Amino acid sequence: MRRSLLYFVLTFCSLNAISAQEYEVRAIDGFGNNIQHPEWGSSGAIMLRATAPDFADDISEPKLDETFSRPNPREISNALFDQNSNFGDPLNLSDFTWSFGQFIDHDVTFSPDGSELLDNIVIPDDDQYFLPKSKLYMFRSAEAPGTGTSPENPRQNLNSITAFIDASNVYGSRPEVANYLRTFTDGKLKVSEGNLLPWNTTTGNVNDPVDYSAPHMDDPTHQLKKFFVAGDARANENPLLTSFHTLFVREHNRLCDDIIAKHPGWNDERIYQEARRWLIGYIQNIVFNEWLPAMGLDLPEYNGYNPNINPGIMNEFSAAAFRIGHTLINTNILRLTRNGETVSQGNINLKDAFFNPLAILNVGGLDPYFQGMATQVQQDMDTKVVNDVRNFLFGSPAAGGLDLVSININRGRERGLPSLNKLRLGMGKPAHKTFLSLTGNQQLADVLESVYKDVNFVDPWVGMLAEKKINGALMGELMMHIIRTQFRNLRDGDRFYFENEELFTEEDIAKIKATTMRDIIMRNTDIQLMQDEVFKAMPTNMIPEGPELFPLSLEAAVYPNPITTNDLHVKVFLNNDSEFSVKIYSFDAKLCLDKTLHGYQGDNYYTINLPDNMSAGYYNIVISNDKNFNVVKLIKQ
Questions:
Q1: 579: part of which helix (H) or strand (E)?
Q2: Which residues of 525-551 are buried (b: 16+ CB within 10 A; e: fewer)?
Q3: Which end of the chain has fewer beta carbons closer than 10 Å to its terminal beta carbon, N or C?
Q4: Is residue 523 within 8 Å of 366, Cβ to Cβ?
Q5: DSSP H helical segments within 81-167, as ranges?
Q6: 267 domain-assigned
Q7: What is the rounded CA–CA span in Å between residue 329 and residue 97?
Q8: Cβ(383)–Cβ(444) below 8 Å
């Protein structure tokens, strides 16, 4: 018989407040999750390695340059990653996918910078953005104390936050941060005016004096005096990320109200821990049952907690595979009204949104960002990265801006990651024999060869982005393997994972599984209409509502697809004589064509002349009449 609670009566201490718990609670710092190995997955734990490190001296010195057949990272960036057009995701995944991915990344991994400066990224003479022969500087990730002393004890890195999917980015990974974020009344977390995250001020509201005892929050621009305070130091990086932080704080406080209504005698500590327990369960469910499957990544069935699995973060995941999101980012952050129209303040470019917390206040809160995320198709997973992070990361090139591509390449090298082929062999995959076998695309293979010369020298992050994709998935074989392995370890190696039979009742587990990201958004915002599957992009005016929630599919096809001319052929089958519309939307949900046609019962054939201003990229064609509709993806080359 399933037990509803693990009954350990223990004393839980927090800020000198003591109360008895009827079940064991998850420690803020993750310590003690595994009883035999209490440090596994805790903040400050050493990152794991799935493969042997590849240092120049077998101890600590990174292989950074041509001496080790490692081309200049900026030259690789310019040759491969320069993006001048939009390449929408063919899976039609929305901006929710990459932005929620960043939120989860900040829940499971953070390797802080050390003091060792790297200066090997030299700007080429023909660079279009940065000053030729200048350098891009970055710090090495901090070395784990006691490591890097011999080949038998090579350099390792720290994860300064908990590895578990435990909403540490909401609550913090250190008790002092967790306590700062709490009101210590009714179990709730602090918020500011507008039900936003608290600011680093004496009252938490933006217009009051700065509270210099507030937890440290990152600001590489060094321009912010006031900023939002959250469980993870990176929460102000962009407004989409900040929106998720705020959303889940709201959900925690909403859960507190529900708990108080059901259990009016419970004290602050018990309410806080119960709301935290449920919020973590909701986030875990979204990760494993919505977000990962949307990307074509399914895990084996859950068979319970395995105390022999170390849930720690792998270096191969942190320094390479899970940096997939950097190629999915759009330049333009959409900010939309309930009707799907751009807000009066306009959209905002990502480069203008970095560490700009006022971008939330300026449009009245979170709703315009969530509406925009749901509408816009993210960029494809490829070897292309938008200028906002490739040339304008945290500032313009003349004002200390950086190139995230160069940093990612260098990060893998300084962490001691081996080449793509060595990594594949170390993880049980065959090495690629040629550049063409790696990517399956002759043009890309030629560019890779011009940069690396030998397929055995390809950097792991670059190679994983270039690998042929698995059918129906966002990514290729090695990236899929690493991400799947890591998330399976995070699930199966977590004693407090929500499906572990001793933590929740069967009814509670069913309730958590029935709660989607859309549900969390709808009950914590004023948004009135959003698609059920938020990780799939859908313009607002395409979302079904009312009695015909699931309209029948209209049989339709377009050809040629991909198309290279402006003459698009359309085939539509109608059950009876009727009018129907053909609307074409760009990847960012802009209407490019709106045409009404008349058809007869049976098959109908048309030729539609596309507008001259339709550039190369991905488009959605919506074909609909009063009862049925269909959405067909079109690629214009």
A1: strand 578-586
A2: bebeebbebbbbbbbbebeeeeeeeee
A3: N
A4: no
A5: 95-108
A6: no
A7: 10
A8: yes
What is the C-alpha separation between 598 and 596, in angstroms, rounded? 7
pLDDT-derived band of residue 562, with 50, 70 and 90 as boundaries?
A: confident
Inter-residue contact 637 to 564 (CB < 8 Å): yes
Q: Greatest CA span in the chain, whole angstroms?
A: 80
Contact indicator for 199, 206 with CB cutoff of 8 Å: yes
In a domain, 265, yes or no: no
Cis geometry, peptide bond prior to residue 90 (ω within 30 degrees of 0)? no
Prediction pTM value: 0.86
pLDDT tens digit string along 176-197?
A: 999 999 999 999 999 999 999 9
Rounded to whole angstroms, the Cα distance separating 553 from 551 reads 6
Cα R_g (the chain), whole angstroms: 25
> What are residue 17's DSSP bridge partners?
14
Are 458 and 421 in contact by the 8 Å Cβ rule? The answer is yes
What is the pLDDT, as a whole number, of residue 395?
64
- pLDDT band per the 50, 70, 90 thresholds, residue 634: confident
User: What is the per-residue pLDDT for 580?
Assistant: 87
Q: Could you list the residue range(s) of the whole structural domain that residue 562 is in?
A: 553-636
Distance CA 83, CA 383 (A): 9
Q: Does residue 198 lie in a domain region?
A: no
Chain CA centroid to CA 77, Å: 22
Two tokens at 559? 């050809």
Alpha-carbon distance values, 258 to 185, 247, 264, 526 (Å): 15, 17, 10, 19
What is the residue-averaged pLDDT of the chain?
Answer: 90
DSSP 518: H
pLDDT of residue 428: 96
Q: Tell me if 578 is assigned to some domain.
A: yes
CB 242 within 8 A of CB 236: yes
Q: pLDDT confidence of 12, banded at 50, 70, 90?
A: very low
Residues in the chain: 637
Neighbours of 287 (CB within 10 A): 22
Phi, psi of 361 (to 5 degrees): -65, -40
Output the domain CATH number for residue 582: 2.60.40.3080
- The domain tally of the chain equals 1
User: For residue 358, what are the contacts with CB-CB under 8 A and spacing of at least 6?
Assistant: none
568 φ, ψ (degrees, to nearest 5): -105, 130
